[in-house]
Design brief:
Number of helices: 7
Number of strands: 0
Order of helices and strands: HHHHHHH
CATH superfamily: Globins
Strand content: under 5%
Distance between the termini: 21 Å
Length: 191
């Protein structure tokens, strides 16, 4: 029985960089823009009065965009309130492992990606296989991520900041998609 070589790159979204290299400036742009989201420093949040948590609001905006881009994904996310909380907690925690943040133990700015990030992303990809997520969904999630940041941050989300987030999503995809494909193949599921 012959097996074909494993090529996860064929599942990568067309817009990502298969060899991502984030610069220190890009890490700062990502951290700065996410701080604006965390601090509620965006008009869409300030102009509404129903939700007091800016991250929760942003998460709901993300899922609205995700379902607009691909309504078929809606059944995968039963409770968008819980999902938005988990999403923003995950994004916040992951960004805390990137350069441009302050190491809580050393009190100094991190200059490298924390080695814990890669196993976290691998585990996340593996878990999402069991939620019926397909490799093709990474394309839509990335578009929803960037579109939601662009919508919520407006003028604070310039082309350089957008490029930084796309490069970060590229990094995440190059870690997560190979694990996702490997896990689905191990389980005999549709990639």
């Amino acid at each position: 029985m012959s097996t074909q070589p494993f090529d996860p790159t064929k599942y990568y979204p067309s817009y990502i960089n298969p060899n991502p290299q984030l610069t220190p400036e890009q890490f700062h742009q990502i951290q700065h823009s996410w701080k604006l989201v965390k601090d509620g420093e965006f008009d869409a949040f300030k102009q509404q009065q129903l939700i007091s948590d800016s991250l929760g609001f942003w998460g709901l905006e993300f899922y609205e965009k995700l379902f607009e881009l691909d309504p078929a994904l809606k059944p995968l996310f039963k409770n968008k309130f819980n999902q938005s909380r988990m999403l923003t907690e995950m994004v916040d925690a992951a960004l805390g492992l990137l350069p441009g943040t302050i190491d809580p133990f050393l009190g100094e700015e991190k200059t490298e990606i924390d080695p814990k990030l890669i196993p976290i992303l691998v585990d996340l990809a593996s878990k999402h296989v069991f939620y019926n997520v397909k490799a093709s969904h990474y394309h839509t999630v990335g578009l929803a991520l960037v579109s939601t940041l662009e919508k919520t941050l407006g003028n604070n989300f310039d082309e350089e900041t957008k490029a930084a987030w796309v490069e970060l999503w590229s990094l995440m995809c190059t870690v997560m998609i190979p694990e996702h494909v490997k896990k689905t193949q191990e389980l005999g599921l549709e990639v």
